[in-house]
Each structure stands twice: as structure tokens, then as C-alpha cells.
């Protein structure tokens, strides 16, 4: 975890912003540049009790088995995970391991392109179809984060870099399968909320929903205790599906402590986004999470965010609002406007969500 101490020999700001991969591979790098030093206060302890802080596991195959009793039980488990944790491990989800591995390997090939080759995909705006960069907002960031990224809008229109060869075809199949998976999860979540099974699918027109493919690269860091991959934040949208290589680094907040998410094979991590918290009128909470770094191995993660169409106005479901007992806790806002608001707010826990929260509750 980051600390409030600086290394005794922290160098001056790097003269220009370079990709972290190139920075980390420099033979001269023995300490991080000062503009990568991340300060956090207070530092929450990492949970040590595995029983108290055991992340729920949801067996997706039970949700689609056709057995009413199994489906009812797993929907209850799904709702409890969303309420208590804001996320869960997902197993038996039906996406071939070979496909996930191929997408991951091709992401590595992309990040291994030269900096000049990757500059071709250097986007600036939140709605640029393809963006490759470093940190969060690049030169706009006061403190730089120890990660490089590729972000691509893949639905309702599919975009993707044309290199490495075959990258787009693999990503298209992967993202198509995830949309189907997310639809089933949201149907189960709708039922758990006491809504019609297809409520979220129909109300938010998921056929035209926004899907963002994000690949994150966290190279080895010479001073991991001083840097951060991504600071504490929540995701926009409804659900984010995360796959990672076997190098850990994801931490989620639970009962005031950080919990390490094990990098297990054949397992996705699913977290609740801000807009599912809004739609559920606060019954489910979007999950605060962060990425830490290490000094030994490169971590790769794929985070695929799923939201409504950009023009959709998201508000608490009318069926979950009672003006006396359960008033609406969030102000309706167009999803596109929320994403734009998120870009100008600091990446700090639930900063953006608090902007649409009704303050007098």
C-alpha cells in the first residue's frame, strides 16, 4: 500500500510524460519520479480474517440451469452479494477459457508495440472510440498512476485497433459473450429487487447499451509502496466484468477494510457500478476498489463496463420509490452527462455519485 513517506532519492519530475511500460523498462530507473508518488490518508488496513472477508462466489450455471429451485436460491445469493459486498466472484460462466487467454495474450502484444505505434491510438476525449494512454488523464493528472491503458467503445458500435492482427476479431467475440452474460445477471438482479425479470433490460434498452473494453497494464514498480495503479474509485454503469492474469493487485473495500481479490483462473470478478446503485435507489452499493502495484511482475486486467445507452436517463426505479418511506435518493441524469461529469471530477471514491445524490436524506 502507498504510504506518506517519500524515498530519500526521489528524482525530479520526468521531463515528458511517457508510457509507464517504457519507464519501467529503463535500466536507470531505481526509484519512481516524484510525480508518481501517491499519498493516501487514512490508510485502511488490509483484512486478515478470511472468514469475515470472504468474497461471495456466484455459480452462473445455476442461474441458467432451468431448475426453478436452483434459480431461486442463486438469485437470493446474488442479491445478498450485491447488498453486502457490491461485487462477487463468478464461476461457470460459459465463456471459453481459451478465448479469455487469447484476448489477454493479444493485449500483451498490443502493449508491446512501440510507443510510436501506440501513439496512433492516442485519444483525448471520453467518447473517443479508441484511447491508448497512461495514468488517468495523462498530462492533466497532478499525480500520475502506475498503469498504461487501452480503452475502446465496443457497443452499440464496435471499434478496435487493427493491430496486432486478429485483436479485433477476438475482442468482438469476447465482448458479445459478456453482453449475454451481463443480461442474465441483470435479469436475476431485477427479480431480486422485486421487479419484473426483464425490467432493467427493457427499461434501459440494453440492446443499445454502452459497453467499454478497458485493458490495463501494471508493470513492475521499483517502489510499489509509494505508487498506485488506480486509486480508490467506483465504476460508472451497471456491472463491470473483470478478468486478470495470475498476478494479484485488485483490492475492494468491505466494512472499512481493503480485501485482496485473488487472481483465480476460470473466475471473473463482477462489481456493481454507480448506475445500478442509482436504479436500486441505494439498496445495492457501487463497489469502491483500487489497484495496487508490485516490484516483481506485470499485471494485466481486462475490465469490461456495461451501461445503458448514452442518451438514457437513469433514475431510481419507480417501483422502489415511496415518497414517504423510501424517497428517491438520486437525481435523474443522462448517462452521457454522468460520464462527462466523471471526467472532470477527481478519481476519489464516490465523488461523482455524490454529485447526483439527494443531499437532504
TrEMBL record:
Gene Ontology MF, one: oxidoreductase activity, acting on paired donors, with incorporation or reduction of molecular oxygen
Protein name according to UniProt: Fe2OG dioxygenase domain-containing protein
Keywords (A to Z) from UniProt: Iron, Metal-binding, Oxidoreductase
Start and end residues of each Fe2OG dioxygenase domain: 208-308
Biological source species: Nyssa sinensis
PANTHER family, alphabetized: OXOGLUTARATE/IRON-DEPENDENT DIOXYGENASE
Keyword Oxidoreductase found: yes
InterPro entries for this protein: DIOX_N (IPR026992), IPNS-like_FE2OG_OXY (IPR044861), IPNS-like_sf (IPR027443), Oxoglu/Fe-dep_dioxygenase_dom (IPR005123), Plant_2OG-oxidoreductases (IPR050295)
Family listed: Belongs to the iron/ascorbate-dependent oxidoreductase family.
Organism domain of life: Eukaryota
Amino acid at each position: 500500500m502507498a504510504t506518506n513517506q517519500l524515498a530519500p532519492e526521489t528524482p525530479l519530475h520526468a521531463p515528458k510524460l511517457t508510457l509507464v511500460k517504457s519507464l519501467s523498462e529503463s535500466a536507470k530507473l531505481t526509484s519512481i519520479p516524484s510525480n508518481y508518488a501517491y499519498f493516501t490518508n487514512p490508510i485502511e488496513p488490509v483484512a486478515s480474517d478470511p472468514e469475515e472477508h470472504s468474497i461471495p462466489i456466484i455459480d452462473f450455471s445455476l442461474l441458467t440451469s432451468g431448475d426453478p429451485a436452483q434459480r431461486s436460491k442463486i438469485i437470493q445469493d446474488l442479491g445478498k452479494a450485491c447488498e453486502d459486498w457490491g461485487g462477487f466472484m463468478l464461476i461457470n460462466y460459459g465463456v471459453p477459457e481459451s478465448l479469455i487467454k487469447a484476448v489477454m495474450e493479444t493485449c500483451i502484444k498490443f502493449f508491446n508495440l512501440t510507443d510510436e505505434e501506440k501513439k496512433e491510438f492516442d485519444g483525448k476525449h471520453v467518447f473517443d472510440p479508441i484511447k491508448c494512454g497512461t495514468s488517468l488523464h495523462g498530462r492533466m493528472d497532478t499525480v500520475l498512476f502506475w498503469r498504461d491503458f487501452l480503452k475502446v467503445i465496443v457497443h452499440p458500435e464496435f471499434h478496435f485497433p487493427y493491430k496486432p492482427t486478429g485483436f479485433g476479431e477476438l475482442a468482438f467475440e469476447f465482448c458479445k459473450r459478456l453482453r449475454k452474460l451481463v443480461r442474465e445477471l441483470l435479469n436475476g438482479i431485477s427479480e431480486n429487487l422485486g421487479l419484473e425479470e426483464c425490467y432493467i433490460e427493457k427499461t434501459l434498452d440494453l440492446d443499445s447499451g454502452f459497453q467499454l473494453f478497458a485493458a490495463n497494464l501494471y508493470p513492475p514498480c521499483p517502489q510499489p509502496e509509494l505508487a498506485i495503479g488506480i486509486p480508490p474509485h467506483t465504476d460508472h454503469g451497471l456491472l463491470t466484468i473483470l478478468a486478470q492474469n495470475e498476478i494479484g493487485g485488485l483490492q475492494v473495500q468491505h466494512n472499512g477494510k481493503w480485501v485482496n481479490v485473488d487472481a483465480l483462473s476460470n473466475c471473473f470478478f463482477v462489481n456493481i457500478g454507480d448506475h445500478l446503485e442509482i436504479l436500486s435507489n441505494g439498496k445495492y452499493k457501487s463497489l469502491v476498489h483500487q489497484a495496487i502495484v508490485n516490484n516483481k511482475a506485470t499485471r494485466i486486467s481486462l475490465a469490461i463496463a456495461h451501461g445503458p445507452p448514452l442518451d438514457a436517463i437513469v433514475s431510481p426505479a419507480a417501483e422502489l420509490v415511496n415518497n414517504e418511506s423510501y424517497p428517491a435518493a438520486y437525481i435523474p441524469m443522462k448517462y452521457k452527462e454522468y460520464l462527462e461529469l466523471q471526467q472532470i471530477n477527481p478519481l476519489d471514491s464516490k465523488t461523482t455519485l455524490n454529485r447526483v445524490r439527494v443531499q437532504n436524506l
